[in-house]
């Protein structure tokens, strides 16, 4: 059976300031991404850089996404970007429910509306879920389950299977050093749990089609173990995606399977 493409997503957050720097980083990543035939590379820059990077991507396999969308298509929502606007400038993916936005007060209902809007407009939604803390008793699984079910409450099974990626983003682990990074065995356990939650509602066929990414502390040193020992479909990478040498090395490693 042919291996499903791995997915490596770079979330640039509010970086870089200058378009010239964004183009420089993107161009370096693009050169490597074009040769990584077994891996889908996605870059999610600040919205002001989306259209120029879409132009730079051209008809190549590297894709550009946005870091958030609003649930309405238009209206009096100062500072918000709609999914239709994102689609209109060439974005193909949209991150929703990122922990940094949840920290600002975004709740599961809002995330669900954003995800529905993104998929309705033809974007692939990258749904971020993850517990704020872990306990030895495993009570954190309940928080994770609630997030998944609530965030997918507006999504039909067919849409989930073809247009949603789930990024497991343990809030307590993001930004830690390699020495503090989550063990691949724990990542594997959590990815199994995520698929079980989806299976219970949407069935096993849908669950197997939904890519599950890991979005904790990822580096050149732990990327391969995270993906292949953790048995996830790819990575959602923050600060390392702004260092083209490191990000490109991760793409090469994941594409090679080692």
UniProtKB/TrEMBL annotation:
Belongs to the triosephosphate isomerase family. Gene3D superfamilies: Aldolase class I. It is found in: Cytoplasm. GO terms for molecular function: triose-phosphate isomerase activity. Homodimer. It comes from Candidatus Taylorbacteria bacterium RIFCSPHIGHO2_01_FULL_46_22b. GO terms for cellular component: cytosol. Its EC number is 5.3.1.1. It comes from the Bacteria. It is an enzyme of class 5 (isomerase). It catalyses: D-glyceraldehyde 3-phosphate = dihydroxyacetone phosphate. This is Triosephosphate isomerase. Pathway: Carbohydrate biosynthesis; gluconeogenesis; Carbohydrate degradation; glycolysis; D-glyceraldehyde 3-phosphate from glycerone phosphate: step 1/1. PROSITE patterns: TIM_2. One of its GO terms (biological process) is glyceraldehyde-3-phosphate biosynthetic process. InterPro entries: Aldolase_TIM (IPR013785), TIM_sf (IPR035990), Triosephosphate_isomerase (IPR000652). Keywords: Cytoplasm, Gluconeogenesis, Glycolysis, Isomerase. Its main location: cytoplasm.
